[in-house]
Amino acid sequence: MTTHRAQEYLRTKVLTASPAELRLLLLDGAIRFGEQAREGLEQKNPEQAYDGSRQCRAILTELTSGLRTEIAPELCERLSSLYLFLYKNLVEAMSERDSEGVRKVVEILTYERETWRLAMEKLGEENSASNVSQVRETGGLTGSGGEPIGGRIHLAG
Q1: Residue 77's pLDDT band (boundaries 50, 70, 90)?
Q2: How many Cα atoms within 13 Å fall on the side-chain side of residue 41?
């Protein structure tokens, strides 16, 4: 796939993603750029290390600024603390040219990504079960006020 095609694919993926999927994409990017920074340090390539670190820090900042404290203040406070911790550790590891420190940041980001993926999967299962339950009870999907959504679904044909 050409670089242009890959960029177009990524652009489409980002523009059509839900907020939960966007968060997953950001975590993927932070991991990828963190790995780039670690590899740059190990290969004594300062430009690669700096670029990876800079991009990873930008994503950590974006993850922090995207938290919606009005919905879950305690969770957002914990996530904000985690992202600040990762940011500080990344800066410290880069200033000391410590590839092991960067690896630890990437390891935590990978754990965070897997946790988020599992949470999305669980919510998807719950939403699917809820929709099936609504169909059984009402003969169709209903909104929060009990109004039908999209008409009736007939399984018999």
Answers
A1: very high
A2: 21
How large is the greatest C-alpha to C-alpha distance in the chain, in angstroms?
A: 67
The token pair that represents 41 in the structure block:
């340090």
Q: pTM of whole model > 0.85?
A: no
Q: Which residue has the higher pLDDT, 144 or 27?
A: 27
Helix (H, G, I), strand (E, B) or coil at 143: coil
Alpha-carbon span 3 to 110, nearest angstrom:
26
CB 93 within 8 Å of CB 101: yes
Sorted by where each begins, the domain ranges of the chain are 19-112
Side-chain-side CA neighbours of 71 within 13 Å: the count stands at 4
Rg (CA), the chain: 21
Q: How many Å apart are CA 73 and CA 97, to the nearest integer? A: 35
Q: Are 112 and 64 in contact (CB under 8 A)?
A: no
- First-last CA distance in the chain: 43
State the CATH architecture for 19-112: Up-down Bundle (1.20)
